[in-house]
Amino acid sequence: MASSATLAPLTAAPPAIEVHDLTVAYHTQPVLWDVDVAMPPGKLIAIVGPNGAGKSTLLKAILGLVPLTTGWVRIDDQALAARRQTLAYIPQRTSVDWDFPTSALDVVLMGTYGRLGWFRRPGQRERDLACRCLEQMGIADLAQRQISQLSGGQQQRVFLARALAQEARTYLMDEPFAGVDATTERTIVELLRQLRDQGRTVVAVHHDLQTVPEYFDWVVLLNLRLVAAGPVEEVFNTENLHSTYGGQLKILSQAAAALLAKQQGLVS
Amino acid sequence: MSAFWPVWLPDPSILLALAVVGATSASLGCFAVLRRQSLLGDTLAHAALPGIGLAFWLTEAKSPLVLLLGAMATGLLGAALLFALKHASRLKEDAALGLVLSTFFGVGIVILTRLQNEPEASQSGLDHFIYGQAAYLTWDHARLMLGLGMVVLVCLALTYKECKLLSFDPAFAASLGLPRRRLEALLAGLTVVGVMLSLRAVGVVLTVALLIGPAAAARQWTQRLSTMMGLAIAFGISSSWLGAIWSQTADATPTGPAIVLVASVLLVVSILVAPGRGLWWHYLRLRQHRRDVAAENVLADFYRHGERQGDRTAPMPAAELADQRGLRFPPLERTMRDLCRRGLAESAGDGWRLTEAGADEAARVMRSHRLWELYLARRLDLPLDHVHRDAEEMEHALPSEIVAELDAHLGHPRVDPHGHPIPRLAAEPRPTEAKEGSTGHGS
Amino acid sequence: MAPDVYYSLVVVACGILVSASCSLLGPFLVLRRMSLVGDAISHAILPGIALGFILTHSRQSLAMTLGAAAAGLVTVWLIELLLKSRRVSEDTSVALVFPMLFALGVLLMERFARYVDLDPECVIYGDIEFAPFDQWSLGGLALGPRPLWILAGVTLFNLLLVVLLYKELKLTTFDPALGDALGFHSGWMHYILMTAVALTCVAAFESVGAILVVAFLIVPAATAYLITDRLSRLLAWSVGFGVLAAVGGYGLAREELLDCSVAGGMATMAGLIFAGVWMAAPRQGLLAQLRRRLS
């Protein structure tokens, strides 16, 4: 996928990410249930909800990393397979083994693998790009450092640099601010704004309700099902937050568990 | 040997020794399975090999006790090395296990082959420890094994409560002040002893099967640790006896592999048919659920038909019913046969009608369906075309408690978001207006 | 060339090729935390070998090689199947599958292949000592020892795999989710690697038996993991340690020294090298750890 095509005109653009009828279940645990949402391009979008609300799963479902029970996902109004290279994914830091024998620069280089395709090895061009991305995150001096010797904030910056090296159009981040120091948090916010100003879309799972209005333009409130989605000023209000975090959803999750147990033959 | 002892039955000394091996391995295996340390026993068994060789080399004696002590010494050394690797190297557990296993086994092979190449070497029968040779178990072996097996079982019995807690929730166990490290060391030590006992019977490579197989099979049948241990012991003993008998009666069938294959069959059978967890029952429940869904869908069709006709037991021609569901005829006929057998429907002309009981059941299904629609529409502002498809699935799954809870939560509503009345249960007073004002088809 | 020098050279060369082929794959097994799956595969190829032998009455046939490699993949598949049924945990499914297949293999061998040259002993420590006598000729043309050719072929295959798919193996090992997201199917990479492991185990079986293969797969890689922080260097060190263990192990097993099984000697040597490195490695070593704690 050529990068010139990925930065198509933004006027009257289709949703960056459209999710329809999406249901995902792990074993008997329903994680997402019949979620419909269309996320606009060029926005900073937060996914907010209590623990176990399916926030990370929504990201993984968009990326095709978990099997969908029902529903479909479209990226820029195309199938995922066609737009895979336009998505960058920043998983939670704890999802990988930081003892892996590799350097920070090497991890960033991995971001270029998708464009390289099978068999081709990264060359000087990719190396230069990776260095620039590290620089942009302010950690160029750590390029040769073994990744286990980086602090939490530095590891997060390496992950962000890797996503930058993907030169993607849409960035999906799983808790980018979790466990990072204040400087790193500022750097990340700065980066997010730059990305948006370049017309890219950022979708981030976010925990800190306080900073949602400050950092983000758009918000998806999630608790097993979609509670609300829209511009922060419209939907990020007490009533919706109460629905998202309030106890009213007990029936919902009980019912969903009962349905899955039946459908999977676990109870008679 | 008594003349009355049947030829197909191995000697009593062998049976006794195998019973001890089966029982100790299986009970230790329960904790190994629950603590996700199934492969520890495999490594410890391999680590015993150099000890056996060394003991023989140093003492030139083949006394079972000496060999066993040697095996235990290097087995414990292997366990200690595993502990050290875990705490003082960056190797992950799997690599540490593989490393200790293969290195110790290599050293063991060096010693055994070295002994074989001694000029005056009597083939010492040490290779029996690799494949096992139950047929050579004497009363000496049996007595020794019985003694050590009893020690293991008594230790397990004394610390049963603590080990159970440790296996279930180590963090909680530690918070209660249980000496976690020491308990883990005790279990590892007992596993070394248990594994040594089975080396003679099934050999280094297959020991792990006797440890894990019966325990994993027993796990399928019960949710209680005490029952699981009892069953595992029974499985352990019966598979070693059956294996020994097989080996006794068939040509060229070594005992170790025979025992392991019997244990494997027991395991596969357990996974398939154990009540509750068995895959076969799982399949049957899935099929039943599909049939229930089909039956309840038809009941719902009858209910809507009844609403339109103003008669809840109005007959419905087969063609119309098939049309509603887009169902092909054979599955519909089977569903209807099923409903008739349960007394919920009866044939009427060229179709069927619901009985009174069937009409009540149909009302129950529709009640779940419409309450659920209302809940979704009110709580989550879902569009109406969404709530119907969703409720189509939910009506089959909602337990009655949740339906009651929904009803209360929504303030005992009368109509669903499409404006259709929500049926009351037969036990409740039926409001008269429930039968009015339903025209449109399908909700 | 003197016959005994030729003999030694062939045995050492076989040992070197076994360790090189294994230690090229080992690092990926160790990093993926699949060391014991490698162990399981090496045991479970036995029924494949026995069946192939029973059907073709030959140890050299292609059918036997392919049957054994297939048995290795069946192991991986069975372990995953058992895991997916959610009736047992991962360690248990490994511990259940490979003894069952190994037992089946031993039984088949005892039953049907007892009096031919496939015996339980060569399962334990192989017969690398006999490699020089297994000469291969094609249409009257003498090509030298057959095991040497087979092992060289597998080593070349593994080398090509690691070189060509280095990037893909690295990515799917470090972060399989990103691999999937970028379009490198981590499930395929897994099975490609497992196929290579199974083929390697089959080729190594004749030389070092079914049980000692794991020493060659895991120990050099684990040793290298203690001294380097780069995957490329890890691979190089791993092969280096493997070759060293093969040569040293042969020396250890010579008549003048220990006079024991060559394969066992090589495994022992690999363990000794690990012990030395674990002691003395610059940062990960025990002495370095002790020094850090004291300072």
Structural features:
heterotrimer; B: 443 residues; mainly alpha; 71% helix; disordered C terminus; C: mainly alpha; 13 helices
Q: In what order do the strands lie side by side in the largest sheet of chain C?
A: 1-2
Helix content percent band of chain C: over 70%
The helix count of chain C comes to: 13
Please give the order of strands in the largest beta sheet of chain B: 1-3-2
Tally the beta strands of chain C: 2
Order of helices and strands of chain C: HHHHHEEHHHHHHHH
Structural class of chain C: mainly alpha
Number of H/I helices of chain B: 17
C-alpha termini separation of chain C: 57 Å
Shape of chain B: elongated
Low-confidence runs of at least 5 consecutive residues of chain B = 429-443
Q: Greatest chain-chain interface?
A: B-C, 61 and 63 residues
Name the shape of chain C in a single word: globular
Oligomer: heterotrimer
**Largest sheet descriptor of chain C:** 2 strands, antiparallel
Strand residue content of chain B: under 5%
Mean pLDDT of chain C equals 88
